[in-house]
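Justification of resources, computational component.

The compute hours requested in this renewal are based largely on the per-chain cost of generating structure records like the one below. Each record pairs the submitted sequence with a full structure-token output. That output is archived, and it is also reused by downstream analysis tasks.
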Amino acid sequence: MSLTSLAVTFWAILAVVAILRRIREVIRLKNSIKGIPVRVVLLSYRRTIANILYIPYICLGINYPWIHKFDDYERNGCTAHVIVSVTPCHATLYVADTEAIKEISTYRPKFPKRTETYRSMGLFGQNIVVSEGEEWKRQRKIAAPAFSEKNNKLVCTATVNIINELFQNIWGDKQEIIVEHGAHLTIPIALMVLSVAGFGNPMTWEADTTPPPGHKLTFAQCLHSVTNDVILNLTVPTWALGLTERLRTLRTANKELKEFILAVVEERRTKQKHDDRWDLLTNLIDASEADDNEYAKLSNSELVGNIFVYLVAGHETTAHGLCYTLGLLALHAEEQEKLHDHIKSVLGDRDPVYEDLNSLPRVLACFYESIRLFQPAIVIPRVAAQDTTFHVSSTKEDDDTTTAVTVPKGSDILAHSVGLHYNPKIWPEPEQFKPERFLGAWNRDAFFSFSSGPRACIGRKFGETEAVTVLAMLISRYKVEIKPEPQFANESFNERYNRIFKSNSMVTLT
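The structure output for this chain reads:
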């Protein structure tokens, strides 16, 4: 036998041994999971390629938790299911059970955040999203006071001014406004609100079309590139960011967005405290500087990191939530009419003020129902710090029994908001747009669009204030309809619904 043949045989034996060892590991892991059937796939969702592609039995793709919604739970008969991957060999538990998700969200030491999942959110510096343990507590302590009632009032006032400028200077006296994509309206609104209430720097509808001196992109262009190409930031090495025009734009956007934010941070830090400023950045700096303990203060890098998170998470989630809401109202004319009448009964022909918002429950209900159907974050990842047993409920009607599901230490635990929100035992006819669900009594533990527990969305009130104000002003003045197009003249309601709301999971569901 030649040396080449011996080498091939040797490496073949090693490969077989490695494969057999991995098969044994997978079987052992699969047998350690008790209570429910286990599905095996080749590639974990942690592998980049597994998020890009969907190949049965190989990898599930990034949209798997969105596409399948509650299907796998119904198939298993309980509100949890497990996927074991071969490479790397580990278990992922998907949970759509109210009590189990409440436990996962509440007990942080037992279910710590898998911070590496949020690497893209740490692009510009350490921040509240990518932190865990004592570091998270420090950042949360400083950040929480920044989201104050005075900041919420600023959000409302800024939103009213921005929408009025849209009405007066952009739309004018036009009887019909055509918007090719709802996000083309809602993303600029959210960005402008965040610029005022987040930075204290007003933007206008006609401004920011030319990059400032020394920059190739505008602030809005930078933000759009960074948020739209978050997967590229995660997967493409720095040296490769010059290979294509899109990657070069992303590289420039990364650099210039950080420069934009840092310049505002440094400018604001040199100024004395202003009692009449209530934007998030000023509040963050004031809260940080108020502590005599140097360790407790936020560095410039941490301020930049946190402001970046508020920009990305804040403007993305609200903008897309509003876009879905407008689309749903356009498809459900009867709900839009109810909403219009409700707004008029409260406001008449005047603009809303912050004190009005609690008197507009149907507006908030429409927004809640939209982000129940189209959740900003389709899963919230945690990790089991120890061997863990959950008691999850049955999916069968009139069956109150529970199933004990045990997963080993180190397993990924995904609180699956889509599965929770499409559970028909909690939300009857879950596919239907029914804002009435949120009028009167409803199960707050089963609504996970803002997460829950200690790590629930810190900017929830900010987003709700903006959303209610925008919807109240738009729907009081305009009727929203789907633009008629000849090629879609004969489509059914379901066909139109699926066409309009075809979604993908990126930073948030879009």
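The longest strand covers residues 80-87. The two ends are 60 Å apart (CA to CA).
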